[in-house]
Every structure is written in C-alpha cells, then in structure tokens.
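Hey, I was hoping to borrow your eyes for a little while. I'm sending you its amino acid sequence along with the backbone structure tokens. Take your time with it, there's no hurry, and the full record follows here.
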Amino acid sequence: MSLTLVHTSDWHLGHALHGVTREYEHARFLAWLVAACEREEPDLVVVTGDVFDSATPPASAERMWFDTVAAIAGRGADIIVIAGNHDSPGRLGAPAAVLRELGVHVIGALPRACEDAVLEVAGGRAIVAAVPFLRASDVGETDAATVYKDVLAAARARRRPGQALIATGHLYLAGAAESKASERPVSIGGIEAATPRLFGDDVDYVALGHLHKPQRVWRDTVRYAGSPIAMSFDEVTYRHQIVVASFGDDGRCAGVRALEVPRAVELVRVRGGVDDVLAELAALPDGDDAADPTRPLLDVVVALAAPEPRLRARVEAALDGKRPRLVRLLAEATGDGAALAERVAQTRLQELDPRDVFVRCWERRHADPPGEPVLAAFDRLVSDVRDEAADVVVS
C-alpha cells in the first residue's frame, strides 16, 4: 500500500530573538502545519529534533507542543519525534508512555538495545530507524557511524517486502550548508561532520534535523526539512518549509516535494553607513501599533569609521512612527582604530558563541589560531557540559 510522510524539524519552541519572543510566529506555524496535515492526510509525521529551544522550555511552549501532536495524531497519523541537541532527552521523553497510546513515538535518548530504536508504523507500511541526537552517553566507547550501522542493521533484519525503510538523524552531514549565527557546533561520537554514506542506497528516505536551511544532501531523498521560522537575521533569505514524501506499493520513495511555510512576521535588515541607514529607515512604512504581533523585526548594522555617540538616538528618531520594531542595533568598525573596535565588539552575552569566545582567547595567548583538533576537542567539551546541564534539569 502507498504511504505519505510529512517531515518537519527544528521548531525551537520558546525561542526569543534578541529578547523578543517568537510565540506568535510559532503559533501561526503550528496552526498552518495542522491544516497542512489535514490536506495532505499523511500516514506518518516525523519531527527530527530541537522541538524546544532549550532544555527548560516555558509552559507556553510545552502547551503548543502537546496541542499540536494531539491535533495531528487525532486525525490518524502516526508521529515519530526524536530529540535534538537543544532538547532535554529526559524532559522530551518523559510522557512517552502516554503519547504512545496516541500513536506518538518519542525517542529522547538512544535506547540501550538498538532494536528498541526501530519502529514499525503506519499500519506496518514503514519501518523506521529512529536515531536521535547522539550524546556522549549514547555513544559510549563506540562512534556515531557504528550506532547508525547497528540500528539500520536491526531495521533491515525486521523489514518485510514492501515496507518503506526510513532513517532519522539530528546531526551535521558533510557537504551541507549551515547557518553559523544560530546553529551550535555539535560533535557526535567524536566526529563533527558525518558522511552521508552512513545511510545506504536501500534507505528510502532520510529525515534529518539540526541545520536550519532546508536542503537535500547527496541525493533527493536525504533531506533537512529546516526550521519553520528564521532563527536569526542571517536566515531571512531561507525558504522555510516542510517536506512531503510519497512512497509506492513497493515501499520505494516515489517523489519528494516541499510546502513553503508562510512567514507570519517579516525580518528586515538595514546595513550601511550612517547617512544611508538613516535614509533607508526613513523610507520604511508607517504604523506604530505596539500591540500588532505582525510588526516586522528590524536589525540595524551601521558601519562607522569614527565614534558616533548619538547613533542610537538618531536611529530611534528615524524610526519614530514606523511599523518595524527595532530589536538590535550594532556598530561595525570600518577603520583600524583600536579604541572604536574595542567598543563595538562589546556584544551582548546571549549573542556570543562559546567557540568564538574560545578562539578570541586563544588568539590573544598564541601566535597561531587553534587548529582543527583543538577546536574539535573544545566542541566535544561544550557538548558534554550541555549534556550534563540537561541531565541536571530533568533529574
């Protein structure tokens, strides 16, 4: 029998962009997703990690999560959800026994037995090697490639003729395009970039998460669904989407298509010298209804060759009565004046990436930048610390 699969990923519920909540955008996306599932009538919905933006999401984010899976599962679709590197495996998987009764299968951490990561769903039409983000505690003395090999071997051993073989993952595949502004470097099993050949030619569809830009890797059936909303201003050009895959009676993938997610709130970037920026801001549309949740979010980056003490006041004056909402104002030094460069480098703490801070500190103490082995070791250390923090939260 034929099969329809919907693949979505990286919701990051509870996310805030420079202090501005994205709750309205997420609510709009989830309502659209439920409506899309009503139209497409999928047999299986796969969510490939980073359901939440942090290990301790707000209650409103958890409410949206439960409401959405209940709405989709209530229409007959099976749902598979794997944890991402932002999720707490324990917290995400805590209600797994209850959700399973609704046809919702949650894989927070890798099960001890590989066979337990293999799920037969959609009335037996699909068998899924459901591998979540692999933490150090999951991999142990082995490596990520071995984990995938073992889980896929268990799936192949149970596969019957006509069943679609589907694999999941939350990782970075070599050759894929990443968004450095909003995606944490992650290490799985001691490697930072896995080869797409982890998944053999017999795997009918590979549903991936972690990278926010929707894309295919290696072949058309190896897909990152991407995030449903822009997680940073660097992602304003992404065409956010969900993926719909169709399978024939033989279980093979017969076609893949994307459904573009409508953007509920526009993100606007204005960059340039002071005069150019002020002129562009003056041309923005009018409308200052503070209660309007659809107001565009505005990022302003001003290139300065010398200090401009009144920069913020001038920018705010230009935006008086304008519809876009200023969420970030940054100055970039264009000359080599050390004093100005030091001032404009004072980035907000929440905007700093641990790897960037490490590289800056290293370069102050060493003549050469850190090599790849050093950076890989640092990324593994950060990943281990975050894993320990997540375990503490749910204990």
Q: What stands out?
A: The mean pLDDT is 88. The radius of gyration is 23 Å. The CA atoms of residues 37 and 188 lie 32 Å apart.
